[in-house]
Design brief:
The protein has 476 residues and is an alpha+beta fold. It contains 13 helices and 14 strands. It has a four-stranded mixed β-sheet, sandwiched between helices. Helix 3 crosses helix 5 and helix 5 crosses helix 9. The longest helix has 43 residues. It is globular, with a radius of gyration of 27 Å. About 9% of the residues have low confidence.
Length: 476
């Protein structure tokens, strides 16, 4: 695997140098269009300064910027225990030095991406729609794919290349818009004294401002597509269950296509997702402008793996399905011929979730992230109250009872912990709080400090800690 990582880094450096060259030339010719004598060097300096600022920002805070831009929120284990457990399993399987931070994006469209700068500083973000539509094996496949991007050192490349591409597009659009809206780079006696030099630079700058971003995108997209194949291969190796990822890709693709008309995903974030939501109009899309391989090809390769879940098995399936003899995995890795058996599924899907139920579950996750309160009346009616609700009580629409906001049922009970043997600690009685659940769905209550605590349907623990005061609360 280290050979794979080294090859990945080497190709990333080559691509980075090529894109850096495109940016430098773009700044040079635009500067020449403004001032043919001193302008080229000034334009070169400005383009490099723009890149330096954006690269510095992306390296030290790029992941936070991307997560904020996506509207992702960091969640705790209590919010979605299954997601945390799956991420932890894949972290151990990938032998990462640190657990990635976990984020949920408030979107009903199923998708996911990874970001960060190295395995020690990384994050995995999934949408609420993904959590509501996938079973555990499918979720594990998606998380393993994103974990593979972290393991293969893709995340820093994706962040920095995105910044480089953004810098090229930024300079090109500034120049082209200035021409469109009446910008002038010459005038009067000064322009005539420069002869045709400025006109030549202007023509070159115009052509390069159009072609530069296209060239940079093609360079970026070409390697991005190969990285997706590598991440699929590595994911299967981690999970030992190709069908999990294949089924997940199928569900994400169909769901993305179904809501494509209302998709508002940014062009900046779209290439980072496991499936590009802006290009997935149909399952077998392709072309030089695609950031991802055709989803149908990825699914067929995974479902044609035979004899094992190792890298060699994936390479053989890739060559068989695509008809290409080229290798997407370093030869040294293929020569190891490691034996990775395919395991049996851990989840038996009893019944297919209805679309209405999936949408409702995704909506509840989004509401919980937005600090909605989930109140259950004694008659069993579930009420979802927005955070800006100011009244102290709410009337149940079914039985017309008044319910306190929030319904807490917290009982402060004086109890002595297990520290009785300590004479110093014995003097201090620890206050123990208890909350009794009413349903198996989302519920909210308030801690004694006033902080609201959310209980997810997947929470099975006997204790939960308040995120504000760290008070331990017993759940019964």
């Amino acid at each position: 695997m280290w050979e794979l990582i080294r090859a990945n880094k080497r190709k990333s450096i080559y691509l980075f140098i090529l894109m850096f060259f495109v940016l430098a030339v773009l700044g040079f010719v635009i500067g020449g269009a403004v001032e043919p004598i001193e302008g080229p060097l000034i334009g070169l300096f400005i383009s490099l300064a723009v890149f330096a600022v954006m690269a510095f920002t992306s390296y030290f805070a790029g992941d936070k910027v991307i997560l904020t831009f996506a509207g992702a929120r960091k969640v705790s284990h209590d919010m979605h225990p299954q997601l945390f457990n799956v991420v932890e399993e894949m972290k151990i399987s990938a032998n990462l030095p640190k657990m990635p931070e976990v984020y949920i994006i408030p979107s009903t469209v199923p998708n996911a991406f990874a970001t960060g700068k190295n395995p020690e500083n990384s994050a995995i973000a999934v949408t609420a729609g993904l959590l509501s539509k996938l079973n555990r094996d499918e979720l594990q496949g998606v998380v393993a794919h994103e974990m593979s991007h972290i393991l293969n050192r893709d995340i820093l490349f994706m962040t920095l290349s995105g910044v480089m591409l953004g810098s090229i597009i930024f300079l090109s659009e500034v120049f082209l818009r200035s021409l469109m809206y009446g910008g002038r780079y010459s005038g009067g006696r000064r322009s005539r004294s420069k002869g045709g030099g400025q006109a030549v630079f202007l023509l070159i700058a115009l052509v390069f401002s159009i072609l530069g971003p296209i060239i940079a995108q093609l360079l970026y997209f070409a390697i991005s597509r190969k990285r997706e194949y590598l991440a699929d291969a590595s994911a299967v190796r981690l999970t030992r269950y190709p069908e999990g990822l294949a089924s997940a890709l199928e569900k994400i693709s169909l769901s993305t296509h179904a809501v494509h008309g209302n998709n508002k995903t940014s062009k900046v974030l779209a290439p980072m997702y496991i499936i590009n939501p802006l290009l997935e109009k149909k399952m077998n899309f392709s072309g030089l402008s695609s950031t991802h391989p055709p989803t149908s090809s990825r699914i067929n390769i995974l479902r044609n793996m035979a004899g094992g879940a190792g890298l060699l098995n994936y390479q053989r399936a890739y060559q068989k399905f695509s008809g290409e003899r080229s290798s997407i995995i370093p030869i040294s890795e293929l020569r190891k011929q490691e034996i990775v058996g395919i395991r049996k599924p851990t989840v038996v899907q009893k019944s297919q979730k209805t679309q209405k139920k999936s949408i409702r579950e995704a909506g509840d996750i989004i509401r919980a992230m937005s600090n909605f309160l989930f109140i259950v009346c004694v008659c069993g009616m579930k009420m979802k109250i927005p955070p800006d609700f100011k009244k102290k009580s709410i009337k149940c629409p079914r039985c017309l009872r008044d319910n306190t906001v929030p319904v807490a049922e917290l009982a402060a009970v004086q109890a002595i912990g297990n520290e009785i043997s300590s004479p110093i600690q014995n003097k201090k009685h620890k206050e123990v709080l208890n909350y009794r659940r009413k349903t198996k769905g989302w519920e909210s209550f308030s801690c004694t400090c006033g902080n609201f605590v959310q209980l997810s349907p997947l929470f099975k623990g006997k204790h939960i800690s308040c995120s504000k005061c760290s008070e331990k609360i017993t759940i019964s």
